[in-house]
Write a structure and sequence with these properties.
single chain; alpha+beta; 9 strands; 20% helix; globular
């Protein structure tokens, strides 16, 4: 009887390790440069201009992140770069910015989809709206 219990516990332990490995493998794919494709606010697609289409996240495997942001300012495309540290837990991505962005020192993001070629993220903005972005 003890051998049966031992074998059951061993198999459960190995399957738990396999699940943890699978989750870690899933988020290993997040480390790359992601280019903005689409934006939605409260499920309404926003215009991505020839300027803002340049927005990108550079997520490095050392938990350092760079965000290259582009905005139109009086018809001129202006760029800024923000840096921070990132971590994941389950389907959550947390970014702690070195300098606050628009009053936010961190982002708590839900990873809606993550594949080799697509990163779909959703987060609640300060004003209560929901921003969903798709990066390739």
């Amino acid at each position: 009887m003890k051998k049966i219990i031992f074998i059951i516990c061993l198999s459960l332990g190995l399957s738990s390790c396999a699940l943890i490995d699978k989750l870690e493998d899933q988020f290993a794919d997040i480390t790359r440069v992601w280019n903005l494709q689409k934006q939605f606010i409260n499920n309404i697609e926003q215009d991505v201009t020839s300027c803002t289409i340049n927005n990108k996240f550079d997520i490095a495997d050392n938990n350092i992140l760079l965000f290259y942001k582009y905005d139109l300012d009086d018809a001129n495309c202006k760029s800024s770069t923000n840096s921070g540290r990132w971590s994941t837990f389950g389907n959550s991505l947390t970014i702690n910015w070195d300098e606050p962005i628009a009053g936010e020192s961190s982002y708590d993001i839900e990873i809606v989809q993550l594949t080799q070629s697509t990163l779909k993220m959703k987060r609640k903005l300060i004003n209560g709206d929901f921003l969903e972005e798709i990066y390739n």
